[in-house]
Amino acid sequence: DIQLTQSPSSLSASVGDRVTITCQASQSISGYLNWYQQKPGKAPNLLISAASILQSGVPSRFGGSGSGTDFTLTINNLQPEDFATYYCQQSHSLPLTFGGGTKVEIK
Amino acid sequence: QVQLQESGPGLVKPSDTLSLTCTVSGGSISDYYWSWMRLPPGKGLEWIGYIHYSGSTSYSPSLQSRVTISVDTSKNQFSLSLSSVTAADTAVYYCARRITSGGYYRDDSWGQGTLVTVSS
Q: Who among A46, A97, A101 is closest to B108 (CB)?
């Protein structure tokens, strides 16, 4: 199985900050990585697919990069509605796996 | 805009079988793959498995001996069955649509989720 290690597991940030979340795969997954945002009591929302493709309707302050084993989700100008938990997911091979999540909290 | 809705019992006894159905509206189930995931309390997301509308399936190895996913195209529904449940199966269960472009798969539309508690 491909393990995905997210860091940090949680962070505190202020509105307007730039936030960076990393996701490291245990083996190369090329660009087969997705990012999801989940708010309490809500379903996950797909933000980015194929490592860097912003989904329709997702604000441009979200960005994804990386390939191989190292990936990054960046949120510029953090907004109040961005406080949530973020997960990476690899779709390179079965079984599909998620990272452990990064909780972004208000400082 | 496709919409998904999970339904099923919110309480299941230990050793019983958990059964959930996902109803798809706003689009045909006869395209794409359809997934089940879960979120245990205090933990991260876990992939359970998926099914193609043709009936082909793939399951998480950790659950494979207990899980069955099926599809009913006439009702635009797909279902999850998880046998011999324990407290560790307590979670919010989500169904989702799995799409691809250029070979890059992702789960782009999700149901709201349903909490299933395993307890006597």
A: A46
Q: Does B110 touch chain A (CB under 8 A)?
A: yes
Cβ of residue B42 closer than 8 Å to a chain A Cβ: no
Give CA–CA dist A85/A105, Å, rounded.
9
Chain B: nearest CA to A91, how far in angstroms?
6
Q: Given the DSSP bridges, would you call strands B104-110 and B91-101 parallel, antiparallel or unpaired?
A: antiparallel
How many other C-beta atoms can be found within 10 angstroms of the C-beta atom of residue A55? 15
End-to-end CA distance of chain B: 39
B32 touching A, CB under 8 A?
no
Residue of B116, B120, B95 whose CA lies nearest to B40: B116
CA separation, residue A102 to residues A22, A87, B6 (Å):
9, 7, 26
Q: Is B115 near chain A, with CB under 8 Å?
A: no
CB contact under 8 A, B104 and A1: no
User: Which one-letter amino acid corresponds to residue B69?
Assistant: I
Is the separation of the CB atoms in B39 and B92 below 8 Å? yes
CA distance B60 to A35: 20
| Nearest beta carbon to residue B44 from set A34, A46, A98 | A98
| 120 residues of chain B, pLDDT tens digit each | 999 999 999 999 999 999 999 999 999 999 899 999 999 999 999 999 999 999 999 999 999 999 999 999 999 999 999 999 999 999 999 999 999 988 899 999 999 999 999 999
